[in-house]
Amino acid sequence: MQKKRRNSELICFDMDNTLIDANKLHVLAFNKAFRKNKLKIPKAKRLKKLFGKLGILILKDLFPKLHHKEAKKVLLDHEHYVYTETKKYAKPFKGVRETLKKLKKEYKLGVISNCRHKEITQILEAAKLDKKLFDVIIGNDDVKHGKPWPDEILKAEKLTHVKAGYMVGDTIYDIMAGKKAKVKTIAVLTGNHTREMLKRYKPDYIIRDLKELPRVLKNG
User: Fold this and answer.
1) Do 17 and 28 reside in the same domain of the chain?
2) In a domain, 5, yes or no
3) 91 burial via Cβ count (<10 Å: 0-12, 13-18, 19+)
4) Which of 8, 87, 200, 204 has the highest Cβ tally under 10 A?
């Protein structure tokens, strides 16, 4: 494969459970928010299966009768608990930091998340993952529609003036967004969606974790 010109292509990464082990921080923050708003706490397994969706859609699935205004209050409480209590549980997966440093030599890198922009930066900071590794950070509040729509990827392309080549993430929503943006999709098995579930959405590649990404890019 011909070596790419430095920074000639953008790789978009999901954050939670792709770069960072985020299950514990979000489960605890949601449960505290549910308790505060007198909502029944769901089983952790059910909640984690919904991660990757926009927060408002997670609540719609869990509490179909919940009024939109009440749902927004729950999400604000969730964010508050992330900022004040649970972000300390954010940990980058093994090898992520080294992989990003290696890729940054040849690509532009972006974080594309259905978290709000402030929440992304707070979690990255708590996980000690240097924001300078990324050329662009896009949250759901930076666009009209979050994943599975392609808006976040398209916004990242616009801000970096570089075409996205890949969307890397752990959920079906990352794959859907990547396909709508007409980029190659790489699913990682570090999240809550199984290989079988991810395969149904036909990503271009499925890898065990981010450490395998440079090899896939080299051979792809």
Assistant:
1) no
2) no
3) middle
4) 87
